[in-house]
Each structure stands twice: as C-alpha cells, then as structure tokens.
Specification:
single chain; mainly beta; Neuraminidase; eight-stranded mixed beta sheet; five-stranded mixed beta sheet; about 40% strand
C-alpha cells in the first residue's frame, strides 16, 4: 500500500523506506563516480500517472515490466512494458487484481517474473502470480504454502537465481520471515541471521557478485541500517555514511557504476530526490547534474535495451507522476 500521509503513520512506534529491481548484465565498471545525470525521456506512449507500481526487468521478453499501483483515487491492475524507447500496454487475461505496493522479481530458474503481496484498499494480499514474458501472460498459482499476506514485501532474485521474499506489513505487525519460491510452492528459509522485521525496504542485487543489499524500511525497530545477503545468511553492515531514512524509495543495480542506486523516497512525510550509490561496503551520495523531482513510490529497473537505470512515476505529495527518466553515469 502507499504510505502517503496516513496509513502507517498511525502506528505508534513507526519509523521509516523503499522498492526493488534486478537485471542480468556484465561490465568492467569500477567504483561509482561522484557525479551522474538523470535525463527525462519523451516516449511516444506512457502509462497514466501512478505511485507504488511494481517494476522489474524481464530477461525472457527483453523488456521492463510494470504492474498496478494507484493514482490517488483508484487501485490499478494494468500491465505495461518498456522496450528502451517507449511504453506499451499489454492486454492480458487473466490479470492479477488491482493493488498497490506489491513487489515482483525475476526467477532465473523458472524464467518467470513472480508477483506477491500488495494492498487493494480493503485487504492485505497474499496471492502469487507468474508473468511469462515469452507469452505475455499472467497465471495465478495456488501454492500449498505461502508467506503471510502483506503490503510492501521485499522480493529479490537471490544469488542462487530463485525469488526470495522478506518481510512486509500485515495490517498489524511487521514481518521478519523469509521465504523462497521453487516454481510451484513457497518454502520458509531460516538463515542464521535475519534483518529486523520491516516492510518497504530498498533492495538491490549486485549482478557481478550476487550480493543482495537491503536498506531502511518501515518498522517498529529502527530500520536505519544496511544488510547484505550472500545466499546463505544476512550480515549487518557498518557503512561510514548512509542515506537519510526514507520509505518508498527506488533501488536498482547499475552495472556501469557497479553500485546499487537508491533514488528518492519519503522521509517523515517529505519526499526526497537525492541519489545514492552502494559500492562494496559504503553508501555515497551521487551529485546529479539534473534530477527528477522529489517523489516516493517510483518504479525502477535497469534496462539493458537502453543501457541505463530508468524510473517511472511515483508521487510528490499529492501529485501523481507519469514521467520516465534514465540515469547516465
């Protein structure tokens, strides 16, 4: 669900951050530079304005896929793809029901995109859907076991190629469990160490090392921390610097920078537009020659077709956006 000025802020111990995306790419990039630039694109076709849509790159189709979100009045269930040049709506039946703040990630083992969770204005959702990029089709699966129905779960492709899910908010409690999708069922994982329970943390996967990086989130216990996952267990990091604690930020791996890029998010009800990079063991703020306006809930993914990280939409206060930007290192 979205976090604009209300829903989670009524939870007494609430503290605060963000989104997810993955790709498959190789490069000889080194450390992230101090200065980068965002450039606004002008695609011939764009989705309507929205926030908290879920977005990732789908290697099976060679396109970025985006689903759902909300526009401030309506919860959405439309599916869009981006080919590096323009957006195209995909008419697909069946379709996951309308929702906001679900998450998706690409399963390299089954070559399907996995969607889980979200909020539809009434209920926290726990259904699982698969996107077949070669057939442009959604399929609902009914696994025997499943994580708790939540909004704002963290989905990511783990170092073994499977989709994992951690955390989320079930309307009463922040979750701290971890599950893995095996193609037909979810199974709970029990790493030696797990991050503190939270929802809507920023998650990116370094595709050179396979390392999963998670920062911040909404939680009862202070989530102003950075965790990494190596496919076996989580490690709490001690970076010299960290971004401002935000929710609804957007994170993806940029192979040219060899860094997890984190953009925007809300912080105490104020939307941000700073850009940060996680490289090796530290966060560094990246100076931008141009930047999208402050926003939370923007979709993000690295797009090999254009060779850049792109973001779409989000919201700045009560203004819902439908602009597309790319990051030029």
């Amino acid at each position: 669900m979205k976090f604009t000025r209300g829903r989670y802020f009524s939870h007494s111990f609430l503290i605060l951050i963000c989104c997810c995306a993955v790709t498959i790419f190789r490069s000889t990039a080194t450390a992230a530079p101090d200065s980068v630039g965002w450039v606004q694109l002008s695609p011939a076709n764009s989705p309507p304005a929205r926030s908290y849509a879920t977005m990732t790159y789908d290697p099976a189709s060679g396109k970025v896929i985006m689903f759902g979100g909300d526009d401030g009045t309506t919860y959405l269930n439309d599916t869009w793809t981006f080919d590096g040049i323009t957006w195209a709506q995909v008419a697909t039946l069946p379709s996951p029901p309308a929702r906001t703040n679900a998450q998706i990630a690409y399963d390299a083992v089954t070559q399907k995109v996995v969607l889980f969770g979200g909020f539809n204005g009434r209920n926290y959702l726990g259904d699982t859907w698969l996107w077949d990029g070669t057939a442009s089709r959604w399929t609902r699966v009914r696994p025997t076991h499943s994580p708790t129905a939540v909004t704002g779960p963290m989905l990511f492709t783990d170092p073994n190629g499977s989709v994992d899910v951690f955390g989320g908010f079930d309307g009463h409690f922040y979750q701290g469990t971890m599950w893995q999708w095996n193609g037909f069922d979810w199974s709970q994982l029990f790493p030696t160490t797990l991050p503190y329970a939270r929802s809507s943390a920023a998650v990116g996967v370094n595709n050179f090392t396979g390392e999963v990086v998670m920062f911040g989130g909404l939680a009862d216990v202070n989530p102003l921390n950075t965790w990494t996952y190596d496919g076996t267990t989580w490690t709490l990091q001690s970076p010299r610097t960290q971004p401002t604690l935000v929710y609804g930020g957007s994170a993806a791996f940029d192979p040219h920078l060899n860094a997890i890029v984190l953009f925007g998010g809300g912080s105490g009800g104020v939307d941000q537009n700073s850009t940060w990079g996680w490289h090796r063991s530290n966060w560094k703020q990246l100076l931008t020659t141009q930047s999208p306006s402050a926003r939370e809930g923007a979709g993000i993914a690295y797009d090999p077709a254009s060779g850049h990280v792109i973001i779409f939409g989000g919201q700045n206060g009560d203004a819902y956006l439908n602009d597309t930007w790319e990051l030029l290192p």
